[in-house]
Amino acid sequence: MVKKPITKGRLRGLLFEILIDKLLKRAGFIELKNRAQLTKQLFRFHGRGTTHQIDAFGEFCFSVPFVFPIRILAEAKSKKNGVSVGEVRNFFGAVADISEWYNLDTASMSRREIFMQRFQERYMDCGAFFSTSGFRNQAEEFAFAHGIFLVSYKNTVHVPSVYSSMLELIEHINLENLSYDDAKKISKYIFDFMPNQIPSRIKLEGFDPALTALRESFDQIHSYLGMLNGRTAINIISKGSSTLPENDANSSKIQFLDGRFILKNGNFEGEFSLPQRYLEYLSGRKKKKYSRVKNRPNTIFSFIDVALSANNYVKITRISNLQIEPNIAHNVLKYLEKQDEEYAARRAEAERTA
Fold first, then answer.
1. What residue ranges define each of the domains in the chain, with the CATH number in brackets?
2. DSSP three-state, residue 309
3. pLDDT-based confidence at 64, cuts 50/70/90?
């Protein structure tokens, strides 16, 4: 038994971070080419003021004209309740500090030193926050104001399915023989599906079948990162052998079902979610605020730019031929009303039992 064994919650968090990293890599991001900003341990970044731990990161596989190579800095939270504004604020501070690492002290540098700095690789940093349980209202508002992209898997099916397999695997790990430092290494072995690298001392009965079930669940999903109307980042997740078509010849249908959006194109069917504020706008629930906006669904679902990654080949395609479910606003409104009723019932029950 180790002196400070890892807790089940921390191991769950580590594995979810690896899962997000794998989803990013499947969607067109690669390992960083320039690692000068990383610490020796390779999991913390030097900022202008201090170092910061970043849960998942990567470099987009090709550059855009007049833009430095895109580097994603991701935070991953697996928790019961929605992410708070404080957690998003802390992450924003880390991203801002990391992005200012390139600042030059021209007063103390020679002209040659300043000139040579031009040949140092730089990145365009994008902060993205991934959550299993969504975000609270103030967290969404703060993120929108400061350019932090939010991706939630609340109410979706495919990523939570992999997450459930991950939780089942944790039940077959001997936490008493696992320290936090060892857990960071073993977490990568788990999602790289390298059972021979995992020491037998942490394996409980049923570990190997649980690892096999996790691999089967993860191998069935495809991950696509896209921008909705050039404003909102979405992670489209599909399951099975069908993949998102490379062209926009066939129309794509957008539907809303049980809190998530469904994108259909031929045999392809993927799912994604949007922040709560988008749902309120789409439903028109705050009529005074949105009454002047006509065709609200069209203002959100005009086009989707998505990166398609397969066989070491990545292509950016625009899905512009979108057919929106006619009653999508009504369905979203009914979902929000149901949410309010469930919340009121939980509060009443809490007050009754207090």
1. 31-155 (3.40.1350.10), 220-347 (no CATH)
2. strand
3. confident
Q: Which residue type sits at 85?
A: V
Q: How far is CA 308 from CA 17, 32, 124, in A?
A: 22, 19, 21
Strand order in the sheet with 268-272: 313-319, 304-310, 221-228, 232-239, 268-272, 260-265, 252-257, 322-324
- What digits encode the pLDDT tens for the residues 130-143? 999 999 999 999 99
Contact status, residue 141 vs residue 89, Cβ threshold 8 Å: no
CB-count burial class (<10 Å; 0-12, 13-18, 19+) for 5: middle
Q: How confident is the model at residue 15 (pLDDT cuts 50, 70, 90)?
A: very high
Three-class DSSP category at 318: strand
The stretch 45-54 carries a mean pLDDT of 91
| Helix or strand (DSSP H, E) at 271 | strand 268-272
The structure's pTM equals 0.90
- Name all contacts of 91-96 with Cβ < 8 Å and 24+ positions apart: 91/127, 91/129, 91/148, 92/127, 92/142, 92/143, 92/146, 92/148, 94/45, 94/47, 94/52, 94/54, 95/125, 95/127, 95/148
Contact 58, 29 (CB under 8 A): yes
What whole-number distance in Å separates Cα of residue 283 and Cα of residue 256?
11
Tens digits of per-residue pLDDT, 166-201?
Answer: 999 999 999 998 888 889 889 989 999 888 899 999
Under DSSP, the state recorded for 59 is E
Helix (H) or strand (E) holding 45: strand 44-46
Radius of gyration of the chain (CA): 22
Question: 264: closest CA among 273, 254, 256?
Answer: 254
**Cα 23 to Cα 221: distance, rounded to the nearest angstrom:** 9
